[in-house]
Each structure stands twice: as structure tokens, then as C-alpha cells.
Amino acid sequence: MCSKRPPAEERRTQLLDAADAVFAEYGVTAPLDMIVERAQVGRATLYRQFPDRRAITLALLERSLNKTLAAAHALRDDEQAFFKLLEMVADRIAISAPMVDYWRAVDRGDEILANARQQLWHAFEEPMQRAVASGLCKHMLSQKDLGLVLGMLGGSLRGETAQQRKALARRALQIILEGIKA
Fold it and tell me: Along the 182 residues of the chain, how does pLDDT read in single tens digits?
């Protein structure tokens, strides 16, 4: 009896889940064999899906961005969407600190990262407009302002543990919201 291999998309998800966990625990420079071991797949499976470390980090960035875009869409009728998205991103920063740190170190002119920032802006822009229109937010932030806010949330990277980072992210978010909420 031959065991059927899972579909490529399922293996890709397994690998990304494993990479996310390994990078969160050991940093982005962790040996790729740790990802293979955590995903319980062969090394060839990893390299069929992701030819190198950058491909894995790009896929993780894309997945995180897609989650944010999906959340923005799901919250499209919620007046609190802007604040809920900020909270979601703050939590993600705290959980995936090494990934965030990695992307902070990438050249600001990197085309892929610039595109991701643009997409992130679009995820936040409409919910922010609704928050301003409904009187929940003092005023619109510019794209650079939003980048600054997200950078401030990145201050949570100073925590040594996920729990400390989450507490710092929550406190940073609280301070930010006190400044922008009406």
C-alpha cells in the first residue's frame, strides 16, 4: 500500500507554519534543517517549495500581509476596524519579532518591501477614513505617519520573551491610541 503525499499547498502551509515557529523561537538565521524537522518533511520538499531563506521570508511576509488584508476586508463594516487592525498588527509584531527585525533591516528601497508597505497602507486607509468620519479618530494619518506608528509598535522587539514583547506591544498601542483616538 502506497501512502499518498499531501498536496503541494498543504506541504507549503506546513513549511510556513514551521518556519514561522522556528524563526520566532530561534531567529531568522536558524538552520533550515530545523524547519524541515518541525514540518516533518524531507529536505527536498523544503527546497522544492522555497529555493532559499529569502524565499521563505518573502512567503511569510506575503502570508502575514494577506492575513491583514483579509482582516481589513472582514472588518469593512466595523467602525472600530482601524483600531482592531492596529491591535492585530501589534500582536503579530510581538509574536514574530525576528521576522519583523529582519524586514526592518532590509534596504528601504527594496521593491518587494515597498510593495508590501503600499498594500499595508491600503489595508489601513479605508478603515482609518471611516474612523475619522465617525468621529472615533482625530484625523487621518499619512502613509508615513502609519509607518511611524508601526515602527513605534516595533519597539516591542526589545522584550526578551514573547510575553514581554506582547506586553510592550500592548503598552505601545495604548499610548498610540491615546494620541489618535478622538
Answer: 555 666 888 899 999 999 999 988 888 889 999 999 999 999 999 999 999 998 999 999 899 999 999 999 999 999 999 999 999 999 888 888 777 777 777 777 789 888 988 999 999 999 999 999 999 999 999 999 998 898 888 888 788 887 888 899 999 999 999 999 98
The enclosing domain of 37 has a CATH number of 1.10.10
Inside any domain, residue 131: yes
Contact 154, 100 (CB under 8 A): yes
Query: Is the overall model pTM greater than 0.90, yes or no?
Result: no
Inside any domain, residue 2:
no
d(CA 117, CA 79) in angstroms, rounded, equals 23
Domain extent at residue 94: 53-180
Answer yes or no: is 24 within a domain: yes
Alpha helices in 42-110 (DSSP H): 43-49, 53-74, 81-95, 97-105
Is there a domain that residue 145 lies in? yes
